[in-house]
Amino acid sequence: MELWHGSSQIIASPRLDIGRPRNDYGRGFYTTPHRELAKEWACQKKGRDGFANHYELDAEDLVVLNLEAPEYSVLHWIALLLQHRIFQITAGVEAEGKAMLIERFGINADDYDIVVGYRADDSYFSYAASFLANTISVRQLAQAMRLGKLGTQVVLKSARAFERLRYLGYEEAPSHPYYALRLARDIEAREDYRKLAGTFDRDGVYLSDILRGGISDDDPRLF
Fold first, then answer.
1. pLDDT digits (tens, 9 = 90+) for 19-65
2. Which regions of the chain are under pLDDT 50?
3. Taking Cα atoms as reference points, which of 135, 126, 132 lies closest to residue 200?
4. Which of the residues 28, 47, 79, 127 has an alpha carbon 20 to 30 A from that of 119?
5. What angle do CA 187, 191, 194 make, to 5 degrees?
6. Sheet holding 2-7: strands in order across?
7. Are 117 and 25 in contact (CB under 8 A)?
8. Does residue 75 contact residue 131 with C-beta atoms inside 8 Å?
């Protein structure tokens, strides 16, 4: 598996112990199969160049949680996010919804060597918050996760996975054009989301519907 990690630094020897526990799937090393996306992520600030660190991962025999597999819905992803990221809870439905989603759809990502799933940048994080606030449906949330075309991220979660990772070098990621590309991608995604969230999904399933009961975990509307 060919992987890339965008950063302001050259990272020849990634380490599990310095990862932040409040990332999307908890502590780990976050990478992408997409070189150009890694270069965009490397340029977080205007005028500051970065690096796309290049790796090869031997994933044979590693235990992989692939959230893109058919048996998982977007609710499994949001439950993982709720377990690790900090959400500001302002209403009773949000608190009850958070507890319910973690209980019914939560997965312990630390049981896996690798997690493959959505990348929750600031825009994606706001989509999850909107669902928790009961303003968009499950279907709209799933549609929103495709906005911006950020692709998927591959997260190394275990010492075993790190042992299988081989550093191949790096490519420079100049702020021009990659900062502008990253910014344009985000602006387009936010504008598309504004249009999506401005409609009521009459046949959709909202958080309040799940809380009321009667919707099973294998309901096709959740997928």
1. 777 788 889 999 999 999 999 999 999 999 999 999 999 999 999 99
2. none
3. 135
4. 47
5. 140
6. 2-7, 50-57, 165-173
7. yes
8. no
